[in-house]
Amino acid sequence: MPLQNFQYDTIMREYNRRQAKNRHVLEEHQKEAYDKMPRLKEIDEEVATLSASKARALINGQDSGLEDLKASISLLSQERTALLLSNGYPADYLELPYDCPLCQDTGYIESRKCSCFKRAEIELLYTQSNLKEILEKENFDHFSFEFYSDTIANESTGLSALETARRAYDTAKNFVLNFDSTFDNLFLYGDTGVGKTFLSHCIAHDLLESAHCVLYFSAFDFFDLLADSAFSKKSDTTGEDFIYDCDLLIIDDLGTELTNSFVSSQLFLCINERIMRRKSTIISTNLKLEDFSANYSERTFSRIASNYRMVKLFGKDIRIQKIFLGGK
After folding, report:
1. What are 281's strand-pairing partners?
2. How far apart are CA 41 and CA 32, in angstroms?
3. pLDDT tens-place string over residues 157-179
4. 73-88 residues labelled b (16+ CB within 10 A) or e (exposed)
5. Torsion, CA 33, CA 39, CA 43, CA 46, rounded to 10
6. Residue 17 pLDDT > 50, yes or no?
7. How confident is the model at residue 183 (pLDDT cuts 50, 70, 90)?
8. Whole-angstrom distance, CA of residue 269 vs CA of residue 222
């Protein structure tokens, strides 16, 4: 998903800030150096005059005298460098500094985004995802299977909690791997504390690292945002549009909010709209499937069942294991 205009503007404002800061640094350097070494100012003025003459000659197609101008500028530059070095300053002290020498703080190398722009893009997406800090700990590298029993089995599948977790993990990995080529959605369900949120964070981390736009909301915050948008007198709907357009939307702990007709209708609208736009969504819930259908209508559940990959996790509450059993 390309950056939204307001996201692009946010990044470019930072580049403008950098350029202004570095121009100020150069001005401070010039003032200090000129005060201490007046000859430097004379040299810079002479170079500017000669450079202007050279430019006019090139525009007018005059080749005669160009070599003499180049030689004069070169000699002045050598004198300038020698003067700086002899007074204890680096040779580039009067050059405009750059935070990124590759693109000279423009964000682009010719027409291509500089690596620093891509880093800024990822940083912004992390910040706007609502997940920046937690993903430092909750990602595939930190996912552990030690909390899933290999003796507790699911009666309907015959698989142990550990086998089920491994399948869910593989599903999540493949979701990321095929994200740009395959439209897919995940519905993570199971009891409290069995790793549903952690697994969605793993997916979010890897997609954000590859500069995809990911938004994460608890169910309460998600419907709160939609309510503000629906009932606010303001005409700005950027937040709501972004919910429909982001590459991946994660709605966590669905069923913990106060469910009513507004919530039910908004959930269906969001799910349906994102399916129509082929934008992926991950929903996690502690509700049993029959309870989910009762809470949000059969129509909503039917839309999910026919367009989402259903992933169940079960086992002992991992949070309790970590607190009371020392993680064992």
Report:
1. 249
2. 11
3. 889 999 999 999 999 999 999 99
4. beebeeebbeebeeee
5. 130
6. yes
7. very high
8. 13
